[in-house]
Amino acid sequence: MPPLMLQRQVEVDVACSVEQVYDLWSNLKNVPRWMPLVKSVKPLPGQPDLWCWQFGLRFPLIVEWVSRIEQRIPGRLIAWKSVSGLRNQGKAEFFSSDRGCLLRLTLAFALPGGIVGKGLEKMGIDRWLEENLVDSLNRFQTQIEAEVRRQADDHSSRQFPPAIHSENVCD
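Request: output the structure for the sequence above.
Response:
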């Protein structure tokens, strides 16, 4: 019997352009910045579509997997599926919204079988996963909106140098 897949979908509406949201998300090395349970994401040397993920609380509660980018549509979609380690798959979708960009994240993880899987279900792993995903997307939203504001402030301060005040320069 195949393992039970736990799937959750969460969304956040970000006050940034689709391009800005996609650009930050598409560099998977950034993911630990807003997902504290993701300890690291590194590309495998010479294989740009394969990424090694470390996930968990801390040693010894860390799991690893390698995922393959299955589909990448710039400004629209990044989809992946594990090829080794923890069985999982997911996608990040990017949509224009009145606010800027609606980011929809869908993740599915295989629960272990037997008593461990049953125990995780009884502990409310589905609710825990959804809460962590919502928190992570809210953290992503806060970070990217702050970065974009900071970049805009830096750009406008360089574009308009401070006025020079001097005493009667015509005399």
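The mean pLDDT is 84.
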